[in-house]
Amino acid sequence: TPVSPQAFPLPSLPRKQPTVLVVCGPAQNGAIGLVCARHLRSFDYEPTIFYPKRSPDPLYRDFTTQCEKMDIPFLSYLPTEVQLINDAYNAVVDAVLGAEAEVTEGTEPCEAILATLKHIRIPIVSLDVPSGWSSESGAAGGISPAVLVSLAAPKECARRFLGRQHFVAGRFLPYDVQRKFELNPPEYPGTECVVAL
Asked: Is residue 59 part of a domain?
């Protein structure tokens, strides 16, 4: 059952085994991953962050500092032996590339991270656009997440998502943005910030 109120939708992750690896890329999706890790910690999960190429952006540095102040550990390297990841964590949050994939795809360290994530067996939760996917056409050689959390609204590639659960987090999307892009947001029950599609 989902945790309520949900700061981040991980209903399939049991509380008795709350370890989550949050893998962050160098751009906007990585910053969202840092915020996600902070929320997970607030709800008594045990996140660990892998953030190998830190952005010099002051806002991203602030997110990193907030995570450090919450005693969230940072890995110095991502094990290439996937069984170590499978044994140590109950889920992986994919915040590597997201919608900005066309800018950073194929560059290190993202390429090596994706090669590892493609082989893990624990559930992957992708933020916005699964890493390695095109935001338009979908999964050409990318990872296969169990859960997709679309930010603001589902991207075109979400039509090709075959995982177990799809959520959208866009309750606070301004009305002018909704009108401009002709979005039809779902109803958010009560005070929830995410809704299952």
From this structure: yes
